[in-house]
Write a structure and sequence with these properties.
7-stranded parallel beta sheet, Helicase, Ruva Protein, domain 3, alpha/beta, Alpha/beta knot, 12% strand, 10 helices
Length: 247
């Protein structure tokens, strides 16, 4: 379990499929002003780029240390919790908090473990599939008449709220259990789906909304590492005793 005196250092800001390099530079500047430094990019259209350097100003060190990944799963590897920023409600959505409440929650978790905030593309935001990789939806309470917010501005708002949560003393008790890593939870979902198909509980040709509902259920639970081990053990025994399918 990772310990750090500054919980801000355990928080990743993940920009997913960013189109405009200027937004990347502005996001880097926004992070540095609030004492945050960890920026991850998922398949950016243009990066590195002179416009990103120009708008980063004195936060070019954040850009130099920016991690570029091919997929969102790669960007979230090593984290135990991810929150996705979205301006609209989704069907079968995970729990939702406003930025202030979410910041307190994330600071509490990041006192001991790695967490991430995920921001979508400027034009279309996060897809339902991308949000499914998160355990929490976060909304910025914009005016209902115009909800569109620049991604770098959203980063600045979230970074500010995180810093305020730290200054207010948000944290966790020393005995807070270790949460399961996101990549291990994704592996569990894959094995669970395979198992449900094998025992004829899930029809792969007519899945309806079973797996999204399962994801939402476990997202609310915030699985601990030991709890996930128990669930994986259950799946192993189910598969051992399940009757093989006959074609």
């Amino acid at each position: 379990m990772k310990m750090d005196a500054n919980p801000l250092s355990n928080i990743r800001f993940v920009l997913d499929h960013t189109s405009h390099p200027g937004n990347i530079g502005s996001a880097a500047r926004a992070l540095k002003t609030m004492g945050l430094t960890r920026l991850y990019l998922v398949a950016p259209r243009r990066f590195p780029h002179a416009e990103a350097d120009a708008l980063a100003c004195d936060a070019r060190d954040v850009l130099l240390n920016t991690q570029v990944r091919t997929t969102l799963d790669e960007a979230l590897a090593g984290c135990v919790f991810a929150a996705g920023l979205t301006a609209r409600r989704r069907d079968l959505a995970h729990p939702c908090m406003d930025v202030r409440e979410a910041a307190r929650h994330l600071i509490a978790l990041s006192a001991k473990q790695e967490v991430a905030l995920v921001f979508g593309n400027e034009a279309y935001g996060l897809s339902n599939e991308e949000l499914a990789r998160c355990q929490l939806m976060v909304s910025i309470p914009t005016d209902a008449a115009y909800t569109s917010l620049n991604v770098a501005s959203a980063v600045q708002i979230m970074a500010y709220e995180l810093r305020m949560a730290v200054l207010a003393g948000s944290g966790v008790a020393p005995d807070t259990p270790e949460l399961a890593r996101l990549e291990d939870i994704e592996f569990f979902y894959r094995r669970l789906e395979e198992t449900l198909i094998r025992i004829d509980f899930l029809d792969p040709n007519n899945p309806k909304r079973l797996m999204p509902r399962v994801r939402r259920m476990f997202a609310r639970a915030q699985l601990e590492k030991e709890e996930l081990s128990i669930l994986m053990g259950m799946l192993k025994q189910i598969n051992l005793h399940a009757k093989p399918k006959v074609d």
